[in-house]
């Protein structure tokens, strides 16, 4: 066994890659940007050979090892150095990554297990992998999967083998923008959310991608002169925010699109695109997610992780594509369990006009792989602002969950590039919108946000959920209204509307208008409830409830009921938010309920 510090320095696929897909077909990729910069390796190092081999014909592998008592990254590095196996080289620079019990193993019915650790190394061939796997301290051995961005495209073409448009008409023109980021924000209802004072303040979104050239950072020579604001940290710790060219400024695009929806949020740059001597493989994503989890345990950030990358074909790594027990997929589940909201792009291998790198793997059931298809993640497809389905947006069933994608968001708009495109652009747009939801409801979970987005999406395909657009196009204001707690009380009589309406007039003085939020009460008898919230009336057409509204209901339209009359019922709870107190239990919408406010 050898211990090496830079085992990947001779990967020939990085310098000699000719943009071919397995089988030898040439794939010309054209950028949609205006920067004039080509990606140095916009496939993430994924050439025509799988698994990846270096100049010495060695394969990069991840070795999952049993932890045992007293295990730690430092201790496991020592264990890795002690593996006496001819042909195995341990990577001294890779910090062992712990894997907690649970994760993807839950899908396999494996139950809980002790913490394991993943190290990185290289072997000569699959036979060495089998020998390594048989060692008592080794749990399993995995190929270090090549990864690539679902990048911004200028053109795609429908091929003779391509399928027909599943939700006509399809948009197969990624180089043609439909509006800009401001138009997208208006279409999705984000501007309505902004009007409530929700612009992402206090929320951090991690952009797991090809790097960001951040304001205030010592950007490397040869990089774009453009700088992205509000980037406050990241991984690798030594040089986050200093480069973006390896994936053709794809990370800059993603960060721009996040901030387009959440302009007061902050961004972490989690760069997984590799370096001059390190290809883009799943091991880097594993390290980036571990950094995010460790950081979240310290200060609760990042709140959201946006991922616009993956694998284009099952042949890149069939095990990662379909096995939920893969270390990275389990790490994604661990991040969700930690409380981080995780989004993945569906991919650009839809059947109508797939990206050339998809090869034979395109269309329904052969285009959403690995963690991108995990049932717990939010998997994002793409439409344009005109509600046209994007013909290259990957289609379900996913490899790990038949009900994919979950929903679609908007792509093909002017943002960082003349046309930000791909499911790559749709995902950070939605990640920025999710940041607003998290600001509004700090306790929001992955399941809750996902359910609200699905419940309020606009259906554009066959009625109900479909394998092309999922639940439909996300609508952020409606999702916010759905996500906020709906309060119920134990006594149920309808709320009486006020006997008269007071028209609001344009004036500098404030008139008593309806409360902005629902406050249910449990009065024992009919009592007058007086609105206490004073807001200026902004339009002549708005009607305010009278100053004294009879409350005979389970839903009292007032923020200021007498405290003796507002009490929680059995099994109810009180929730404090912005100085207001709500009583009741959390539940769904009640079609018979009436309330006042805006």
Mean pLDDT: 77
Q: What structural category characterises the helix and strand content?
A: alpha/beta
Number of strands: 24
Shape: globular
Major β-sheet profile: 7 strands, parallel
Rg estimate, integer Å: 26 Å
Distance between the termini: 69 Å
**What topology, given as strand order, has the largest sheet?**
9-10-8-11-13-14-15
Helix fraction bin: 10-25%
The fraction of residues in strands falls at: 15-25%
Description:
With 598 residues, this protein is of the alpha/beta class. Helix content is 20%, strand content 17%. It has twelve helices and 24 strands. The chain has helices spanning 12-16, 73-81, 126-133, 181-188, 190-194, 250-261, 282-299, 318-322, 327-338, 422-440, 446-456, 476-483, and strands spanning 2-4, 59-66, 89-91, 97-99, 116-123, 138-143, 148-149, 204-209, 231-235, 266-271, 304-307, 309-310, 341-345, 378-383, 407-410, 486-488, 501-503, 511-512, 527-529, 534-535, 543-545, 549-551, 573-577, 580-587. The strands form seven sheets. The protein has a seven-stranded parallel sheet with strand order 9-10-8-11-13-14-15, sandwiched between helices. The chain starts with a strand and ends in an 11-residue tail after the last strand.
